[in-house]
Amino acid sequence: MKSVLGIDPGRDKCGIAVLNFDGAVKFERVIATDELELTLKNLLRDFEIERAILGNGTTHKSVEKILRALNLSAEVVDEKFTTEEARKEYWKKNPPKGWRKFLPTSMQVPPEPVDGIVAEILVKRFLAASV
Questions:
Q1: What is the predicted pLDDT for the residue at 16?
Q2: What is the DSSP track for the chain?
């Protein structure tokens, strides 16, 4: 099944997600930026990726070069408010436990980076706009 790759680029870490065109998440991770090229090669081997969606964040120009070298075209999209949306999505996927469940999630910071979820959101926004 053909897939869409989403990348939330960053100086130190990148969020990566692979989704089917129906929006089903097949892969989602946060990786060190210096591991990006190798990870992308592995994803291209493992998934039938048709296109890439790239957030317009910190290092998107250097990520575009990597994608071009791998013969994958990228559409650069606006990342506005994706981190806030990803934090909400994190708490839906990982409801707070113990005493944390009594605090509103809007007052909590996820205990791990949400860049992978941001990559998911970028692809989902693209898919929604494509319909």
A1: 98
A2: -EEEEEEE--SSEEEEEEEETTS-EEEEEEEEGGGHHHHHHHHHHHSEEEEEEEE-STTHHHHHHHHHHTT--EEEE--TTHHHHHHHHHHHHS---GGGGGS-GGG---SS--HHHHHHHHHHHHHHHH-
